[in-house]
Specification:
- The structure holds two protein chains of two kinds.
- Chain A is an alpha/beta fold.
- Chain A is built from 14 helices and ten strands.
- Chain A folds into two domains: 3-163, no CATH class; 187-329, Rossmann fold (3-Layer(aba) Sandwich), CATH 3.40.50.
- In chain A, 49% of the residues lie in helices and 14% in strands.
- The longest helix of chain A is centred in the middle third of the chain and has 23 residues, at 142-164.
- The radius of gyration of chain B is 21 Å and the shape is globular.
- The chains are: A alpha/beta, B alpha/beta.
């Protein structure tokens, strides 16, 4: 039995149910790095190449935090998770593609990385093979791998179903792993619905966005996110674009944004974007222009090392005031 | 139709010929200037990479000059470049500029779409299919000749006795190629241009320092975007070899192409390819230049360029293990010519110092 570390950053916020279940069911112990803190951020800023975006720096911080306490560091190379896009070439941001190499060269004294290449766009998928490779590294038999993968997929599916009932990802994760009973949120007097779109690691890491979701909840806002939509609902938006974007998480954010713009239930959209993020320079302007064309109020919030609670709160409150004012006038 | 295109180095000479000989009017894109950049910066998203901004500025300028359409390239990722045209289209629409963007998606991926667009342009211009093939062939011949002449100039310039002679010679030579109308004339123009360069009085004894130029394609190819770095280095007496030439994709006449599979060269350091842009190339090319005995490497990258940032995180290791100094220059709208010059002077001093002492000092410099 080994101890496998999973850094709490990037795709963690989306694929944890599969990853953690799979590894645990193989008989190993998973340890996750603690929620982002100042110390983790500072460590990441110190270790990562200084031109990197904040989520990548954070990843370095989380990985460094785990390094001493695990036998393996789980850092798969996410190349694709489906065949999608104009050329069937949907992938992840180039920084995801180079992630294991960046981490390996930046951090000293790392345990071995599980940097298995996940490339599922080929015919037949490839998840069996990828899982098999991981199992091999961890000394498991093919039969064990098969079973663990099945359970992992089931956990992932359960997670998505919970999200699609309107449950926020964080709560859904609790339910998946702690077996807590959870019910779709009831509206108690929330007068406004806001769609929050963006990368899971920007939306669901409360440190990096200065507690945005909490602020919204305190203000009596009903929150919806792209992750509450099914793949079908999301992909339906693709035909509205002249060309599909190339990155999985960007596509989800854009589709989500477009969906909510044509959804009369949503009063406004907040896009959480990482400062100096390459793909987001496009995603954000695209959403902004589309929101304008759909007459949907739109608020971009760029997060970086210095994002402060006060700043985010002020901007959000001003946005909500505007929405409520508009509503009263109607 | 009045047609324009993005400007990349001297290639506009060939593309101008192409547009005109397809029966259209060409609006030659002006060399990117401060104004181009200002326009781009004003209307582009803040964190768009600099090629995106310069291209947007160029499109605005050519639209003001009367262009009705621009022809540009598409792409399939993984980097942003393949999505440029979509965003440019959105932005131009928002500005109410009636400029049509004709994006050529790569023929390998979508041959039908590629031909449809070319064919439309052809019929619009009123030339026959046969004529089109001839025109394409000649355009290609021009692209190749222009590259040949430019490559030679970077070898001659560091040895010139009188500063500026090489630049005069290459400009005269390119004018011949510009004027050439068929393959025969292009061949002659090329010869003439090369011999003009060869006649530049030179110090034959000189053994100039050699620097390889690597990085993202646009800032490597467009001198205005990289503050004329090859000219600058040449006039400092340094010979440069550039990893990217437009014609190099189909030819084997540059160092970088001699080695075949760049991805496999980079694999010990980056076990994934492609990662978009020229990220993998930059790693591999650093290795190749080291193997070919170059004194140093300059990596040109747009600020916030994703693949080059990945490359930059890996290059220090390569630089150490192959013992070749690498200077990374991140370029954004704040980059000034003077800054580039100072950094290059310091870098060249370092290289000269290493060479004088025959020292293989293991050190990498970066910003
Ligand atoms: S998508 Fe943006 S935020 Fe995410 S890793 Fe890439 S550059 Fe960073
Ligand atoms: S390679 Fe760099 S400059 Fe080119 S599109 Fe990608 S990020 Fe921008």
């Amino acid at each position: 039995m080994y101890t496998v570390g999973i850094p709490r950053s990037l795709a963690y916020f989306f694929f944890l149910p599969l990853w953690k279940t799979f590894i645990t069911e193989l008989g190993h112990e998973v340890i996750e790095s603690p929620p982002t803190s100042r110390a983790i951020l500072d460590r990441g800023v110190k270790e990562a190449v200084n031109d990197a975006c904040i989520p990548i720096k954070l990843y370095h911080g989380h990985a460094a935090h785990l390094a001493e306490n695990c036998d393996f560091l789980f850092c798969p190379r996410l190349v694709s998770v489906r065949k999608h896009g104009d050329f069937g070439s949907e992938t992840f941001c180039p920084k995801f593609l180079g992630l294991p190499d960046m981490v390996r060269l930046a951090l000293k004294d790392l345990p071995p990385l599980i940097d298995t290449r996940i490339d599922l766009k080929q015919p037949g998928g490839g998840s069996q093979e990828a899982a098999g490779e991981i199992g091999l590294r961890l000394g498991n038999s093919p039969a064990q791998v098969k079973r663990a993968l099945r359970l992992g997929m089931a956990a992932q599916g359960y997670f998505h179903r919970l999200c699609q009932q309107g449950i926020l990802a964080d709560d859904a994760l609790q339910a998946v792993f702690n077996g807590e009973k959870i019910y779709p949120p009831q509206s108690h007097g929330q007068d406004i619905t806001i769609a929050v779109v963006g990368y899971p690691y920007a939306i669901y890491d409360p440190y990096i966005n200065a507690g945005l979701l909490k602020i919204l909840q305190q203000q009596g806002v009903r929150i919806v996110t792209q992750d509450m939509l099914s793949d079908r609902e999301l992909n339906r938006q693709d035909s509205k674009l002249p060309k599909t974007l190339f990155w999985y998480f960007s596509n989800r954010a854009v589709y989500g944004g477009l969906h909510f713009m044509s959804d009369r239930q949503v009063d406004g959209i907040i896009h959480v974007t990482a400062f100096a993020c390459g793909p987001d320079s496009m995603v954000d302007r695209l959403l902004e222009i589309e929101a304008k064309r759909h007459a949907t109020p739109y608020l971009p919030i760029a997060v970086d090392e210095h994002t402060g609670e006060a700043g985010v709160r002020t901007r959000v409150e001003a946005f909500l005031d505007m929405l409520r004012y508009k509503r009263r006038r109607r | 139709m009045k047609i324009s295109f993005p400007r990349m180095g001297y290639s506009y000479i060939a593309f101008k010929w192409l547009v005109e000989n397809m029966g259209h009017e060409c609006v030659v894109p002006p060399e990117p200037s401060n104004r181009t950049l200002d326009l781009g910066v004003r209307y582009a998203p803040e964190f768009a990479c600099i090629p995106f901004k310069i291209l947007l500025g160029t499109y605005i300028e050519v639209a003001q000059m009367g262009a009705q359409a621009v022809i540009t390239s598409g792409g399939m990722g993984p980097c942003r470049a393949g999505y440029y045209w979509v965003m440019h289209k959105y932005l131009l629409e928002e500005m109410n500029l009636p400029l049509k963007i004709i994006a050529m998606e790569m023929p390998l991926l979508n041959l039908g779409d590629f031909w449809k667009k070319i064919d439309l342009l052809r019929r619009d211009g009123g030339i026959s299919l046969k004529e089109l093939l001839r025109v394409l062939k000649i355009t290609w011949a021009k692209v190749k000749s222009i590259d040949d002449v430019e490559i030679r100039s970077h070898q001659v310039r560091p040895r010139e006795l009188k500063r500026g002679e090489t630049t005069l010679a290459i400009n005269a030579g390119l004018a011949f190629i510009d004027a050439a109308q068929n393959e025969e004339e292009i061949r002659e123009a090329r010869q003439e241009a090369l011999s003009l360069l060869d006649r530049v009085p030179c110090d034959e004894q000189r053994q100039p320092l050699k620097i390889g130029i690597i990085g993202e394609i646009y800032v490597v190819l467009e001198p205005a975007a990289n503050h004329y770095i090859q000219l600058l280095l040449g006039e400092m007496g340094v010979e440069t070899d550039r990893s990217i030439y437009l014609s190099a994709y189909a030819r084997k006449n540059t160092i970088v192409n001699l080695e075949g599979d760049l991805f496999s060269v980079a694999r010990p350091y980056l076990n994934e390819a492609p990662i978009g842009g020229h990220g993998v190339n930059s790693i591999a090319e650093t290795i190749l230049y080291a193997r070919h005995g170059f004194d140093g490497v300059v990596q040109l990258a747009p600020f916030s360029c994703i693949p080059e940032i990945v490359a930059k995180s890996i290059i220090p290791t390569v630089s150490r293990e192959y013992d070749i100094p690498v200077q990374t220059l991140f370029i954004d709208e704040q980059t000034g010519r003077a800054g580039v010059q100072t950094r290059m002077e310091a870098f060249v001093d370092l290289l000269q110092w290493r060479r004088d002492r025959g020292i293989h000092k293991k050190k990498v410099f970066s910003l």
